[in-house]
Amino acid sequence: MTKVSMDDIVSLCKRRGFIFQSSEIYGGINGFWDFGPMGVALKNNIKKFWWQSMVQFRDDVAGVDTSIIAHPTTWQASGHIDCFSDPMIDCKTCKGRFRADHLETSTCLNKPSQSPKTCGGELTEARAFNLMFKTFVGANQDSSSEAYLRPETCQSIFTQFKNVVTTSRHKVPFGIAQIGKSFRNEITPRNFIFRSREFEQMEMEFFVKPDPAIQEEWYQYWCQTRYQWYSALGIRADHLHKREHAKDELAHYAKGCTDVEYDFPFGCSELEGIANRGNYDLTQHMTFSKKDMNYFLQETGEKFVPAVIETSAGCDRTLLTVLCDAYHVDEVEGESRVVMRFAPHIAPISVAILPLSKKLAEPAQKLEKSLRTKFATDYDDSGSIGKRYRRQDEVGTPFCITYDFDSETDGHVTVRHRDTTQQERVSLDNIKSYLEERIEYKAI
Ligand code: ATP
């Protein structure tokens, strides 16, 4: 089994165009990342798969796409203005700034082999640091125009709850889902894209009748469903864990919370949180907005503020998980190769067309064009066929098609499988359905 390090991942991401440091030519900006051609394709496939699983393939979840900047009262009602902070400590000696609860795993700026806890530097007391990015809306820059970049995508799902209820035919129990950017001014962004200051979330709020038994039933359902989703994404089960929060870790209004965690090279860490949040959020927005958030259940005539089960996943963390999990080094014909074993339905390139000779460019390009409307394709005619295979292995292309001189007469091409490197001849007449069967995800 390949043991992967973060250096391996960061270097592959740079080498193969998955992820670059943001503003690299200016020295970079800490906590921000840019996705290159392979990275954006992989990320889009992950988001598409989440959307299909959570919205498209279900009858009981509706999607929204809300603005990044919301009315500032949103964040008063949600508690973010008062409470969304991390404890921060300054070191007067090295001038570093650290999260008090991450001191042991942080690095002293003067003595990089030591942590701020052991380096002997003079530390301040911990103080609360609010993680929300502040900005101004409009031409005036005073307190009346202050606004925030959202630190999570779910609050506007709550504030739009009534609009979705009245404009869709969904009835409780049902969910509202959204994918979008969130921003947190993390004190110490680190571990590549695991903790950054700008990231994407994939969140869903599932509204149910506020009854402890019903809430518990849906909470268990979503814990199970979300855990299974990562397996369907191709993540190895022995690297995935579910961790139920202890009572003293829960927010005062929450009845339960479970994290899905993954064994990253830097340790086991959170990928997603599933929470049984009660009806705290809708009640808060009802109080602050003075708008009725009650739901009327026609069948029974009951009126209530629904309780919520939240599933909150990070797209960038999922992408990092996919990268770490797919990274393998093995040996092919006596040579070592790096191969990214992405599940075929999320690989950035599904199929690469490689003509054996440049003389075959015309029919090979024709084949590539006939496949590109259905699959993410690549066409590569530079270098030896072995080198081209290695390039495709490193970006995780599950199938390479070699068009050779025999293809002209027998109407067959060679399909090479990424993981086994085995090859087989497939008729050009069947190639689309052959690929479809092996690439497309079969709905759960
Ligand atoms: P952590 O304890 O790691 O800071 P959290 O418990 O604050 O995370 P939530 O507020 O529950 O995280 O956010 C839901 C999900 O959003 C997380 O599970 C994670 O996948 C993602 N996420 C949160 N903060 C970041 C970040 N700074 N960078 C990348 N992804 C993040």
Structure description:
This protein is globular. Helices cover 30% and strands 28% of the residues. The model has no long low-confidence stretch (mean pLDDT 95). It is α+β, with helices and mostly antiparallel strands and 444 residues long. β4 and β5 form a beta hairpin. The strands form 7 sheets. It has a 7-stranded mixed beta sheet. A 5-stranded mixed beta sheet has the order 20-19-21-22-23, sandwiched between helices. The chain has 13 helices and 23 strands. α2 crosses α9.
List the helices and strands and how they pair.
Layout: H1 6-15, E1 19-21, E2 33-35, H2 37-56, E3 61-63, H3 73-78, H4 80-83, E4 85-90, E5 97-99, E6 127-130, E7 134-136, E8 146-148, H5 155-159, H6 161-167, E9 174-183, E10 198-208, H7 212-232, E11 240-244, E12 256-264, E13 267-278, H8 280-289, E14 295-297, E15 302-304, E16 307-314, H9 315-326, E17 327-332, E18 335-340, E19 351-355, H10 361-372, E20 377-379, H11 385-394, E21 399-403, H12 405-410, E22 412-417, E23 423-427, H13 431-439
Parallel strand pairs: 3-9, 19-20, 19-21
Antiparallel strand pairs: 1-2, 4-5, 4-6, 7-8, 9-10, 10-16, 11-12, 12-13, 13-16, 14-15, 17-18, 21-22, 22-23
The chain binds adenosine-5'-triphosphate.
Residues 152, 184, 186, 195-196, 199, 201, 270-273, 312-314, 316-317 line the site of adenosine-5'-triphosphate (ATP).
